[in-house]
């Protein structure tokens, strides 16, 4: 018989797991990792474009995409990938970052999907789903940390210098500032470890004595605080 077990701690863990997965995915796909120095559309990527005629703006650069403003386009802002193939990503460090972040996000998305079904299934092959998911989240968090640590090492690439000036170098952003995607990725990484630790509380909540008493009474839907 399938018992649907819903507790505050298990539902909170499920919600946080989904938020962490979507946050990391959105950050990875965003172009707002680096915000370039001010320039004008007609100045292109000249080092002193901000002093030319026209309204200054700040282009953005992601791991594999960018947003720039072009004067001959009606939309004026063009966003999309600058790297068509994996080998065209700005630097080897960013390629490694892409691999580690993608691996971490894949694990987080798998856990987020599984977490939805933990209300009905609390174990798999006699192993607690919460403990297994917590372990996967811990591994994902390590992948994410490695990716974020390698990311600034790629700031010395020619691509980054076009956006951040010639002073840009590994772990020095030059004239650029960090965009919201970088901070979102960092926040998602912290949340991933919080979820990994909190999975133990979700396991305790769904296997408590009160839950067992409800099961012995023959209830199929169990809701506890």
TrEMBL record:
> Keyword rRNA-binding, does the record have it?
no
Q: Which Gene3D superfamilies match?
A: 1.20.140.150
Query: What GO biological process, any one, is recorded here?
Result: single fertilization
Transmembrane parts of this sequence: 12-31, 93-117, 129-151, 180-200
Q: What is its main location?
A: membrane
Under Pfam families, the record lists: L_HMGIC_fpl (PF10242)
Superkingdom classification of source: Eukaryota
Key words of the record: Fertilization, Membrane, Transmembrane, Transmembrane helix
Q: Which InterPro entries does this entry report, sorted A to Z?
A: LHFPL
User: Membrane topology per the record?
Assistant: Multi-pass membrane protein
Record protein name field = LHFPL tetraspan subfamily member 2
Organism listed in the record: Gasterosteus aculeatus aculeatus
